[in-house]
Amino acid sequence: MKNFFYELVIKPGKSYQQFLARFDAAHRKLVEQSVELPPVARGYMLIKKLKLDQKDESMILRAAKGDMAIIEVIVAVRSIFPDGRGQNANSNEVF
Fold first, then answer.
1. Which residues have a Cβ under 8 Å from the Cβ of 44 and sit 6 or more positions away?
2. Helix 70-80 to helix 54-63 angle, to the nearest 10 degrees?
3. Tens-place pLDDT, residues 13-47
4. What percent of the chain has pLDDT above 70?
5. Could you tell me where the DSSP H helices lie in the chain?
6. Residue 76's closest CA among 5, 20, 18, 12?
7. Angle between helices 16-32 and 39-49 (to 10 degrees)
8. How far is it, in rounded angstroms, from Cα 23 to Cα 37?
9. N or C: which end of the chain has fewer CB within 10 A?
10. Phi, then psi, of 15 in degrees rounded to 5
């Protein structure tokens, strides 16, 4: 559980597709331990673990028509960011 909830985040430069596979594998390990998250909670966790900025999160939610179920979030991520990659740690916006 520690891996899924705390350690699992996208690494800089890694593709979203690679991370989706890691996210799915980590979820399967949770299920093996009899921990099942609701689809909406998994969708929320995926969005947060992708470390998206607010604009990108809004685009995903808009594409998913406000439905945060994991299936809808995955479809939205794949359609909006087919070649998406994790951001570098130093890519913070300056105000």
1. 68
2. 110
3. 999 999 999 999 999 999 999 999 999 999 999 99
4. 92
5. 2, 16-32, 39-49, 54-63, 70-80
6. 20
7. 140
8. 13
9. C
10. -75, 155
CB 86 within 8 A of CB 11: yes
- The first and second tokens of residue 16, run together, are 């979203």
Three-state SS at 85? strand
Q: Which of 2, 58, 75 is nearest to 35 (CA)?
A: 2
Q: Is 15 in a helix, a strand, or coil?
A: strand
68 alpha-carbon distance from chain centroid: 11
Question: What is the token pair recorded at 24?
Answer: 């799915």
Token duo for residue 78: 């794949």
DSSP conformation letters of 49-70: HTT--HHHHHHHHHHTTT---H
Beta bridge partner(s), residue 85: 15
